[in-house]
Amino acid sequence: MSRILDQRILLLVISFSASVQSTKVLSEWKNCGDPECEKAMSRVLATTDYLGPDCRYLNFKTGEEIIVYSKLSRENENLWAGSKGKDFGYFPRDAVKVEEVFIGDEVEVLTKETDFLCLHEDKNVFE
C-alpha cells in the first residue's frame, strides 16, 4: 500500500512540475497594435512547418496564413502571437514571412498572466 501511495505522489509531482514549466512567463513585455492588443498587426505566411513545445504555441505547416496580434519584446523578441483559424498561440518569427502590415506604429505594453494561459483538455492552467 505504501509503495502505491509513493508512486501516486511521484506522478502528482511530475504532473505538477510539467504544468508549471509549460505556463512560465515568456516575456514581461509585448508589442501590439493598440494598448489592448485587439487589433491585428499583420498577416504572415509560414515558410516552414512548426510544432511548438506545448499548448501555448501555434502549430502550422508551410504556406499557411497567420494573423499576428502581438510580438513579445525585450527578453524574448523572437516569439510572436497570432491566430490561424480558431487556433491561437506563439510561434518563432523566423518561421514566417510578412505578407501585409496592418499597423505600422507598435505600442509596448506589459504582459498579463492570461497571455500565457495554457488551454489543454478543457482545463485552464496559470502559473
From TrEMBL:
One GO cellular component term: endoplasmic reticulum membrane
Q: List the membrane topology term(s).
A: Single-pass membrane protein
Q: Which InterPro entries match?
A: cTAGE_MIA/OTOR, SH3-like_dom_sf, SH3_domain
What GO biological process term is on the record, naming one? protein secretion
Return the Pfam families for the record.
Answer: SH3_2 (PF07653)
Query: Where does it mainly reside?
Result: endoplasmic reticulum
Query: Which segments cross the bilayer?
Result: none
Is the Nucleotide-binding keyword given for this protein? no
Residues in SH3 domain copies: 39-101
Sorted alphabetically, the keyword list is: Coiled coil, Endoplasmic reticulum, Glycoprotein, SH3 domain, Signal
Subcellular location(s) of the protein = Endoplasmic reticulum membrane
Q: PROSITE patterns, alphabetically?
A: SH3
Q: Where would one find the signal peptide in this protein?
A: 1-22
Q: Which domain of life is it from?
A: Eukaryota
Q: What's this protein's name?
A: MIA2 protein
Natural source organism: Scytalopus superciliaris
Q: What is the lineage of its organism?
A: Eukaryota, Metazoa, Chordata, Craniata, Vertebrata
Gene (name only) = Mia2
